[in-house]
User: What shape does this take?
Amino acid sequence: MKKAKTGGLGRGLGALGLGKDALTLPTDPPPEEKTETAAAPAGVPAQLSIDVIQPNRFQPRREFDEAALEELRESIAQHGILQPVTVRDIGAGKYELIAGERRLRAAKMAGLTTVPAFFRTANDAEMAEMALIENLQREDLNPIEEAHAYQRLLTEFKLSQEQLARRVARSRSAIANSVRLLRLAKEVQAFIANGVLTMGQARPLLALETAALQREAAEYIQEHELSARGVEALVKRLAKDPNALKKSAPPKPEKKPDLFVREAEERLTRSLGTKVRIQTGREEGKGRLEISYFSAEDLERLLSLLTVSADGAAKEDKRAALRAFSKQKFTV
Assistant: This one.
């Protein structure tokens, strides 16, 4: 996916009276021991108790990388928070986060009780806009998260695409194309969000009328590693004949059952206590492993089994290495 341009996004903040100066970090950060829960003047940072900060209801990000959060936690533990979070006063001694959710989460993980905070006066629409702009500037959103954020601003706050485009320094066509992604089947949206499909591969699928056909095409694209032009040609075929893939698919040669694969399926099924299926791929030594679960509790049970097994295997490997090391003879 082509990276979002960030140079012009300051215009969105400027429209709210929040230009670059309003976001400039203080040269002398407030002392760590000072804790304030009363709102400071706009633009002035203060130490604020983490317990009085509520999450941003308009946060466009839906996924937070755990590894990246852990790295940020380590950095905060060593150096503190270098850039204050931004909050608004919602009364009764409580504050709502506008920007800085990763910093706030990492600060909690690091055991901090206070964080430096800027105070802003903002209504719901301005707050949603600032949260979106911050994530766009950092290029933190995947295409589907970005599309949902645009859609929310358009519907909840009655903005036109032209108004939204001006506020976030995007073209109207960019806004329209982004929001159109939400018309794709949920499974296809997940492929885009996870980076399995590129935007060039995904956009042509909008021409297909049904979610089932979009899913079928998306799986075909992955299996055959089609380019954007290849996808366009595929979509034209499917638009003329929705059953084109079924008709053109060559009959699959009968594969002799692989005894090793069948035995592996049975062993995994017994071990995990659920249905396990192994599909061999076209290339030697490659394939797909499917583990079925039937409830949230069943999934949690499987996660516990798999992670405990992995941790146990790692510990056993370490013990084996230590035993081998202890048996070596050394000459002094």
